[in-house]
Write a structure and sequence with these properties.
There is one protein chain. The chain has seven helices and ten strands. By secondary structure, it is α/β, with parallel strands linked by helices. It has a six-stranded mixed β-sheet with strand order 6-7-8-3-9-10, with helices on both faces. Strands 2-1-4-5 form a four-stranded antiparallel β-sheet. The model has no long low-confidence stretch (mean pLDDT 92).
C-alpha cells in the first residue's frame, strides 16, 4: 500500500481584524489507499477545512499536499479540478444539490464530467437510483424532497462515478438514525469490498467507530 494522500505542514490562516488566525496549524497526515478514517473534534477545530483541503476545494496557506503521487500544491486549478473529478466523491452536510436539476440529473452530473456516453450513463443512474430506493423520486427537484431524501441524493451523486476517495462531511447529519445506520453500513461495504478510501468528518462517536482510524483535531492541530 502506498500513501494516497500526504499532507506535510499544512496550515490555513485567515486575517481577523489584522490578526493572523490559524484554522489549521502544521497538520501532517498520511492516508493509505483503502483506509477508512474518521475526523473528530469540537466545532471550529478545523475539521471541514481539512476535508476541503484534502478534496482540493480549498487551498492551504502553506504546506505540501500530495495526492495519488501528484504534488497538488504545484498544480494549476484546471489540473486540480481534473484530479478531483477523476478520483474524488464528496458528500456535503448542506447537500449542494443543483436546484434546477431533477434528482436523476443531479446524480448523472459526475458521469457527464467523466465523459461517459449516454446509454452507459442511463444504466449507471438507474442502478444507483435502485440502490438508494429513490427511483420514485427521480423526476422531482431537490426542493420537493425532505432533508433526509436530499442527503441520500447527495450521497448517491458522490458514489455514482465510483470514486477512489470518498470525502464525507457529517454524512448522516440530516438523516434519522435508521437511515444514518444504512448509510454507514454502505460506506463500510464500499470500503471493504470496493477498496474505496473514505475520510469522514463526524460528531457521532457511533459513526466514528466505522472508521479504522480516528483523528482528533483540536484548535487546528491533530491532537
Amino acid at each position: 500500500m502506498y500513501s494516497m494522500i500526504e499532507l506535510r505542514n499544512i496550515s490555513k490562516t485567515v486575517n481577523i481584524g489584522g490578526v493572523k488566525t490559524f484554522i489549521l496549524n502544521s497538520v501532517n497526515l498520511s492516508v493509505d489507499e483503502g483506509e477508512f478514517i474518521s475526523i473528530m473534534g469540537p466545532s471550529g477545530s478545523g475539521k471541514s477545512t481539512l476535508l476541503n483541503i484534502i478534496g482540493m476545494l480549498d487551498d492551504p496557506s502553506e504546506g505540501y499536499h500530495y495526492f495519488m503521487g501528484e504534488a497538488v500544491h504545484n498544480l494549476k486549478e484546471k489540473q486540480r479540478s481534473q484530479l478531483y473529478k477523476q478520483y474524488i466523491g464528496f458528500v456535503f452536510q448542506a447537500y449542494h444539490l443543483i436546484d434546477e436539476l431533477t434528482v436523476y440529473e443531479n446524480i448523472e452530473t459526475p458521469l457527464i464530467y467523466k465523459n461517459i456516453k449516454s446509454s452507459e450513463r442511463k444504466a449507471i443512474v438507474a442502478d444507483t437510483l435502485d440502490r438508494f430506493n429513490i427511483v420514485g423520486k427521480k423526476d422531482l427537484f431537490p426542493t420537493q424532497l425532505s432533508g433526509g431524501q436530499q442527503q441520500l441524493v447527495g450521497i448517491a451523486r458522490a458514489l455514482v462515478a465510483k470514486p477512489r476517495l470518498l470525502l464525507a462531511d457529517e454524512p448522516t447529519g440530516n438523516l434519522n438514525s435508521k437511515q444514518g445506520e444504512e448509510i454507514m453500513e454502505l460506506f463500510k461495504k464500499l470500503n471493504e469490498e470496493d477498496n474505496v478510501t473514505i475520510i469522514q468528518v463526524t460528531h457521532s462517536e457511533k459513526n466514528a467507530e466505522y472508521g479504522k482510524r480516528v483523528i482528533n483535531l483540536l484548535d487546528g492541530r491533530i491532537a
